[in-house]
Design brief:
Elements (H helix, E strand, L loop, with lengths): L1 E3 L8 E11 L3 E11 L5 E7 L4 E6 L1 E3 L8
Antiparallel strand pairs: 1-6, 2-3, 3-4, 4-5
The structure holds zinc ion.
Length: 71
């Protein structure tokens, strides 16, 4: 889950730009999403690379792991 680092909530985040890069016309190779927080005006970017199964965030967003409240 992606959330705003300033507001610490994903509630006000909007995707302003989304790009998907394909390899060989079929496989998704890379996903790039730009976010804007409508509450504080912060912006950030999230990218996911299939090859390395790697995610990266920059700017005013952070990646949080969704954890169940009960173990
Ligand atoms: Zn915010």
């Amino acid at each position: 889950m992606i959330e705003c680092t300033k507001c610490e909530t994903p509630q006000f985040l909007q995707i302003t730009q989304s790009r998907v890069y394909f390899e060989d016309g079929e496989m998704i190779n890379e996903i790039s999403e730009t976010y804007e927080c409508t509450l504080c005006g912060g912006t950030g970017m999230y990218t996911y690379t299939e090859d390395e199964e790697e995610t990266a965030v920059s700017g005013d967003v952070q990646l949080t792991k969704e954890r169940p409240k009960h173990a």
